[in-house]
Every structure is written in C-alpha cells, then in structure tokens.
Design a protein that fits this description.
With 376 residues, this protein is mainly beta. The protein is built from six helices and 29 strands. It has helices spanning 11-21, 29-46, 207-210, 298-302, 329-336, 355-364, and strands at 52-54, 59-63, 68-70, 73-75, 81-87, 90-96, 101-104, 108-110, 116-118, 127-135, 138-150, 158-164, 168-174, 184-188, 195-197, 199-204, 215-220, 225-230, 233-246, 251-262, 266-271, 274-275, 282-284, 290-293, 305-311, 314-320, 342-346, 349-353, 373-375. The strands form eight sheets. A six-stranded mixed β-sheet has the order 2-11-10-5-6-7. It has a four-stranded antiparallel β-sheet with strand order 15-14-17-18, with no helix packed on it. A hairpin with a 5-residue loop joins strand 23 and strand 24. Helix 1 (11-21) packs across helix 2 (29-46). The termini are far apart.
Length: 376
C-alpha cells in the first residue's frame, strides 16, 4: 500500500494504520498507543530493532534543474522499520517499510531502497540532509548527507592575450559564474602547461615559438567541459567605417577601425605626416580604435588620414578616404547660417543655400544636406 501526503502524518494516524494492518480495531489514541508500546517492547526483547543504513557517499553535487538522489540502502528490511529524511529541521519524508506507508513533502520521494529523491533541484536545496533508520521507536542508525546544487557556468571559458612592454605575451583564461562549481583550467601548448582554478595566466617571452600556433585553454568541473583558443599573430584584415553627425554647433566625424590582431593592435592616427593625439578637436578612444573629429572642416576632408595598426608581431596601414557626400565646410556653414542666403564656391561651381531650407534642416536635424544645395 502507498499513500502520499504533502505534510507529515500524526503519531495517532501512524498507530491506527499499524493496528489495522494487524487486524485490530482500537478506539482512542491512548488505547492505540498502549497497544503499540506493547508491540515495540516485544520487538525490543526479540532483538529485531537492530538495523543499519548502507551508505556509499554522503557528499553529493548536482546542477540546478535536475533530479537528485541521495542514495542509501539498509539492512535488515524488517517489519515496522521506519526511515525518516530531514532537510535541516524540515521533514522531507517518512517511510514505514513493511507494511509500506509513506508521508512525503512536496518535491521529495523515497525509493524502495530508502534513498531520497529531490525533484527539479534548485540552489535552495543546498544543505544538510539527515536520514534516520528506526525500529519500534529505537534509533538504529543515523547518517548525514551534504548536498550542493550549482548553477551552470557560461558555455565556455574566455581567452585573452595581451602584450607587456611590447616584448612579452601575457596569456590569460577565465571561467566563472554565480553559484557555480569552480573549474580547473589548463593551458595546452605553452611550456609548463600552467593550471589554475577559475583563472590561469602565463607569460611567454619566446614570441616566435608561439606565433601562428593555436594555444588552447581547457576547463572542466564535475558537470561541464569547455575550451577557448588564441592564435598569436600580426594585425590583419583591418578596415574602417565612418560616421557623420550634425548639431547646431558643429559637424562631427567618427572613424572606427576593426580587424584581427592577437595580441590586440594599438592604432596610431595620422593626418598626412602629422601624428594625432587626444587634444583640441581630436579625441582617440581608450582602446585607440576610434578617432572622433569635432568641428570637421573642408580642410580636414582634403587631408589624407592613416590608421597605423601595430602589435609586437607587425603593422598594417589603413588608408582612409573621405569623399562622396561626407561632411565639408559647406555643410558646417549650413548649420551655422541664418535665414540670409549664403553663396560659396566648390570645385568651380557656385552653391546657393536657400534660407528656408537651411532653417528646416536645422530644426529637423537632417544628416543629408544635399537637398539644400542648388548649383548654378
């Protein structure tokens, strides 16, 4: 017989159930208790109250969302033996072994070996679990389990390669997460095969030895394995993008470079032979990959821009062409104009800026000002 409840059954319920199994009808909890006390005394005298829990491992690890089993077995499988599981002070389940009767808290079950099953485990199930085997009210054996329920790590570790003083390669690998089991990490392909917990790093001074070679970081814990890799080499496939924005005060041009470089390249910006720095109208991002030019002018547009992308393995030069409708002094003058028409000359043509169109463009913040130009 199997019964499941979401709360513990009372002592009297338990006694009445046993008496009915014995073929007796008792009235009142006191009478039932007297009867069961007599039975227990007989069991004690006969020596059948001895029992033992068979445990393989009392430390169990699991991942969130999975069913977990805290495994036990017991001997002997005698009548009227009881197995009780507690999570802290909370009773997870009681099982009268023979005749079979179970009282279970929601989310738990007890198998026919006495093992506790925790369904859809969460990190809140982490803690101490106590299992007790009793016979006739006499505790025969007690064991304590430690359960740790972890979240999963991100899919794989993260590899990074930096340079130190433009002469040393610094390899690093990290794999962490909240409430996760810390993984072992190992660099494969480097001298010494360095290892670490959650984080590992190693410096290399022999640059040629690792150039073009795939360096792999392998991570693993009880539940996951993952890896990432780095191939040291010179900058390649660098390109650029350009973006213009307008405000009532100025025209702003942003140049951005992207490409492959391991370790990351440092970008040096030039106008002609002039090296640019973050000062005045020029602003270079912290990673050096982006140049912002404030108050962009026609003179700027006529210049030759170069992005010099360099790491300790080599250099790639990127020539930047500014043309085809990108900002010029005329556009900047449109932004600053009043309702009075303005005339200026570009490439031998007279450009007339119509005042009402100028005003509309200022108010609407339009980026393409070609609609405001009439050529004569």
């Amino acid at each position: 017989m199997y019964k499941s409840r979401h709360m513990d059954f009372g002592v009297c319920d338990f006694i009445f159930y046993i008496s009915r199994r014995a073929g007796m009808i008792l009235t009142g909890c006191m009478a039932a208790s007297t009867y069961m006390l007599l039975i227990f005394q007989i069991l004690l005298i006969s020596g059948v109250t001895k029992g033992q829990l068979i445990i393989i491992n009392t430390s169990v690890n699991a991942t969130k969302g999975n069913d977990v089993i805290l495994p036990v077995n017991f001997t002997p499988p005698a009548e009227y033996a009881v197995i009780e599981w507690k999570f802290g002070e909370i009773t997870a389940g009681l099982w009268l072994i023979n005749p079979s009767y179970k009282s279970l808290t929601y989310g738990y079950n007890i198998t026919n070996t006495g093992s506790l099953v925790i369904y859809n485990s969460g990190t809140n199930n982490t803690g101490k679990y106590t299992v007790t085997l009793s016979m006739a009210g006499h505790v025969s054996d007690v064991q304590v389990f430690t359960l740790k329920v972890y979240d999963l790590l991100p899919e794989k570790p993260t590899c990074q390669l930096d340079s130190i003083n433009n002469s040393i390669l610094h390899f690093s690998c990290v794999w962490t997460g909240n409430n996760t089991q810390r993984p072992n990490l190992t660099f494969s392909g480097l001298d010494g095969d360095m290892t670490g917990i959650s984080f590992v790093e190693q410096n290399v001074t022999n640059l040629d030895r690792v150039k073009g070679k795939k360096i792999i970081c392998v991570g693993e814990n009880d539940f996951q394995t993952g890896n990432c890799s780095i191939i040291p080499g010179s900058p390649s496939d660098f390109t650029y993008s350009k973006k213009v924005s307008y405000s009532p005060e100025m025209v702003t041009l942003v140049l951005h470079t992207t490409g492959n470089s391991s370790p990351p390249a440092k970008v040096q910006w030039f106008i002609g032979n002039k090296t640019l720095y973050s000062e005045g109208n020029y602003n270079i991002s912290a990673d050096t990959y982006q140049l912002t030019i404030l108050n962009f002018t026609l003179q700027d547009e006529q210049e030759s821009f170069i992005a010099n992308c360099t790491n300790l393995y080599g250099t790639q030069y990127v020539d930047i062409v500014l043309s085809n409708g990108y900002p010029s002094v005329h556009m900047r003058q449109v932004i600053h104009s009043t309702r009075t028409p303005i005339s200026t000359t570009e490439a031998g043509k007279t450009v007339v800026l119509v005042s009402h169109i100028v005003q509309n463009l200022r108010e609407e913040g339009q980026g393409d000002l070609s609609v405001g130009l009439q050529t004569t």
